[in-house]
Amino acid sequence: MTIQQLEYVVALDTHRQFVLAAEKCFVTQPTLSMQIQKLEEELGVLLFDRKKKKVEPTAVGAKVVQQARLVLREAYQLRDVVQQEKGEMVGALRIGIIPTLAPYLVPLFLLELVEKYPRLRVQVEEMPTDQIVQRLKENQLDIGLLVTPLDDRSLREVPVLEEPFLAYVSEGHALYGQATVKPSDLSFPDLWLLQQGHCFRHQVLNICAPANLNQPRRFVYESGSIETLKEMVRRNQGFTLVPELSVLNEMDNNLMIKRFDAPEPVREVSLVTHHGFVRTGLLDSLRELLLRHVPERLHAGQSGQKIRWK
User: Fold this and answer.
1) pLDDT tens for each residue of 146-185
2) What pLDDT, in 10s, does the model give residues 245-296?
3) I want to staple 167 with a disulfide (CB 3.0 to 4.6 A). Which of 17, 172, 258, 287 is the partner?
4) Measuring CA to CA, how many Å separate 129 from each of 11, 29, 249, 270?
């Protein structure tokens, strides 16, 4: 049994296709198949059911895969500890980020991080919170950039930002003439929402006054994009809630943007890792990059009211 064979097993479980798993491991499909078969022969069990359209682990194979992920995490940590001591930043850095943060944060750090560490291979992928959490636990991601708290003791959270929620109001809406808004002002029938599955949607509903949520809606259109919701408000009617990062360039001259009365509702944005992540230098560098590129009023530790995402 070798580390390489365990990597192939985990890759096949992740991608459920021999060709794709081989591509991700930078080997040919016959090489990956042969090494997995050798491991099966050594263990005396069948790890994967190859008869189905998508390759699936057998019952014992699922247990082997789970243990393989733990073994690989420990092995990678050993390498990372040595690199950390030598001051080296090499290898892969896998980052997962939720879609309501990605358009506004990834452009701030990605190229600068790569330029700072030219031997680092950075991979960033958008995915929902639950998927990021699962992949962190399965060692398929190194860092998650998402909304906290998660209330999960198996993960470490490093708060970075406290980003205010703002109202984005059409010119024809009653709220347009107000300087600020408060939760009791938010009329549910006029509210444009993100689709189910977005933590931002749950936070918006948590901000609204409970009595307002019982009002019948005159229309239903739910988008997967904050930018689409903003455009619906601009061209139609009603209002939506947006994170401040999405309107930074509009703050000084757009009367459609309304702040909440103090204390402002905010979402806590954190870098999240499993407790075994030892490349603390990378984590610190990423945090510093983010803080340098956003206004200081958004830095963690301000006086806003944190809105839970569950």
Assistant:
1) 999 998 998 999 999 999 999 999 998 999 999 999 998 8
2) 999 999 889 999 999 999 999 999 999 998 878 788 889 999 999 999 999 9
3) 258
4) 22, 32, 27, 12
Torsion of CA 184, 190, 195, 200, to 10 degrees: -30
Domain 88-161+268-299 and domain 162-266, same fold? Reply is: yes
Tokens of 214: 């019982």
Instruction: Say which CATH architecture domain 88-161+268-299 belongs to.
Output: 3-Layer(aba) Sandwich (3.40)
Distance CA 241, CA 244 (A): 9
In degrees and rounded to multiples of 5, residue 122 shows phi and psi of -95, 130
Q: Is the pTM of this model over 0.70?
A: yes
CB 247 within 8 A of CB 254: yes
* CATH fold group of domain 3-74: Arc Repressor Mutant, subunit A (1.10.10)
Q: What is the pLDDT of residues 86-138, one digit of tens each?
A: 666 677 889 999 999 999 999 999 999 999 988 888 999 999 999 999 999 88
CB distance 21 to 11 below 8 Å: yes
Contact status, residue 165 vs residue 241, Cβ threshold 8 Å: yes
Give me the pLDDT at residue 110, please. 93
**Fold of the domain spanning 162-266:** D-Maltodextrin-Binding Protein; domain 2 (3.40.190)
**How do the domains of the chain map onto residue ranges?**
3-74, 88-161+268-299, 162-266
Q: CA–CA separation, 190 vs 195, rounded Å?
A: 16
Cα angle, residue 185 at apex, residues 179 and 188 outer, rounded to 5° = 130
